[in-house]
Each structure stands twice: as structure tokens, then as C-alpha cells.
Model the fold of this input.
Amino acid sequence: QIMGTSTLGVMEGCHNSLAVAGEVLFYLSRVGVMAYSGGIPQCISAPLGPEKLYQGAAGTDGLRYFLSARTQVGGWSLLVYDTRTKLWYREDNTQATHFAFSGGNLHLLNQAGEIWLVGDVTSPPEEAQQEKAVAWVAEFADFTDGSPDKKGIARLHIRLEVEEGGQVQAWVQVDSDGTWRPLGQPIGPTPKRSFQLPMVIRRGDHYRLKLTGTGGCKIYSMTRERYSGSAYNATPGRT
Done:
């Protein structure tokens, strides 16, 4: 018995968005990026938000899916989906028209006719130029520590590695007040080691952490030392 079903296909003008990464076929449909590994394709781009993408072109290094697409407001984004971690990353506003994998490296052709190497470059040609240190941001969701009461943070322990020419700064925001407060001083180039950053902040219902930096960096772990308040201190308007 043959059964038929209707599924979301490739969006018009996005035929270049088809690429296989991690043994899964990815493409851009009218509702977002789809993943097909047999059965019914599943949309995996919900973490990118409700903004629609158009005119997509994509490539792969075998494990990561690189997608350059026009956003709903008219700009461009180079997005990367890692099939190992199931996470999305936004690289920059590059507009790529074509991708090709050759010589162990993934290449892209941008709208200016330039050829770039992207991803983990294994054997760059002699005439290739090193890109300048890139600024980056990693922002975490709200921490509530499983408690409805107010709580405070004494310090943050972070284990990281920063490449030559790079630096990292940690920040904290309390109760979504819109103000990011620095934790300690920027951390410069260093081999893998742990740092203890003091967090002299008021108690709050929830807090959020953010890391900013330039250049290459690997974060291995983060540990928070916290203390709890009382239900009385969780009353709205009290600090």
C-alpha cells in the first residue's frame, strides 16, 4: 500500500540552500530551515526567532550547515547549525551566493565576487589573508536557581582559554533591569586555567550572565557561588 503526505519543500529561489551535514539533508522552506533524515522533515530554526528568511544559499563542511539568507527586514545573516551540539550560531552579515567544498576547506563566494574560507581551515592557500580578530557575544538565559525567593551571587568561577590577541569580559544583569555590570577585569590571552570573578551585586529574583570578547576563546566551565534570601525579601519592590 502506498501512502502520500504533504510536507514543506524548498522555498522558491532557495534551491542553493540544499546541503547535507551529519547525514541529514537541510534546506530553507517558507517556514524556516528544515532537516530531513527520512520520514517527515522537521523545522529546526525556531531558536532563531520568528523572523523569516529568504534567498538562502548554503554549504557544509560535513558536520556544520552554513546558511546565508536575507532576513525579513532586508539585511543578511550568515548562520551556522552544528549537528553535533544542535546549536545555532550567527557569524555576521555576509551575503553569500554560492558555497563549495574543495581541498579540505569550505569556500563561499560573496556578493562582491570574493572567495572566503569558512569554518575550520585545514590547509589555507599561500595567498590567503588572515581575518582580523572578530568581536563576539555569548548571552545566557535567566538564572532562577529553582527558587521563587531572591538570591545573590558571591562570585563566578570560569575556566577558559583565550588565544593570542584576544580577550574576554564577563557581565551580569539583575532582574532584567537593562544594565550590564562588569565582573572583574577583562581576561587577556591565557592557556586553559580557572579565574575567580567577584560579583558584588544586589539580590534579585533572577539574573543573567553574558560574555563578550574578541578573537578565539574556549569556555570549558562556569560555576556560580550563590546565597538565598527569604520569601519576605521576594516581595515586589523590596531589595
Q: What stands out?
A: DSSP finds no helices and 18 strands in the chain. The mean pLDDT is 88. The chain has two domains: 15-129, 136-234. The CA atoms of residues 1 and 19 lie 31 Å apart.
